[in-house]
Amino acid sequence: EAIVVTGWIPHWMFAKWKLRFLEDPKKVFGDDEHVDTVVNPSINTKAPEATAFLKKFSWTGEEVGSVMLAIRDGAKPEDAAKDWISKNPERVAEWLK
Q1: Which superfamily does CATH assign the domain made up of 12-96 to?
Q2: Any idea what the Cα angle at residue 64 is, between residues 70 and 60, rounded to 5°?
Q3: What does the pLDDT profile of the chain (97 residues) look like in tens digits?
Q4: pTM for the structure as a whole
Q5: Half-sphere exposure (CA, 13 Å, Cβ side) for 76?
Q6: Distance in angstroms (rounded) separating the CA atoms of residues 42 and 52
Q7: Are 65 and 15 in contact (CB under 8 A)?
């Protein structure tokens, strides 16, 4: 049976169920939002490796949602992250180049 709920990505519910967004031409629920990485400007000189990593790092809402679902289902955050890394070694390798 179809239901309507408010939701956002990233969220674990998108990893658990087949969901889709409804059209919202009047922007009742607002515009799309985004997540930014914000760092202290001195990190460029204090930790250039971290700066290089952050410039390469990105993952999709679906990827974040899968880790969130694992945590919701009882995994410790560290274990959920390690599991995701073990399943996506090529992505992580690109970030670490």
Answers
A1: Periplasmic binding protein-like II (3.40.190.10)
A2: 150
A3: 888 888 888 889 988 998 988 898 998 888 888 778 788 889 999 999 998 998 899 889 899 999 999 999 999 999 999 999 999 999 999 999 8
A4: 0.74
A5: 3
A6: 13
A7: yes
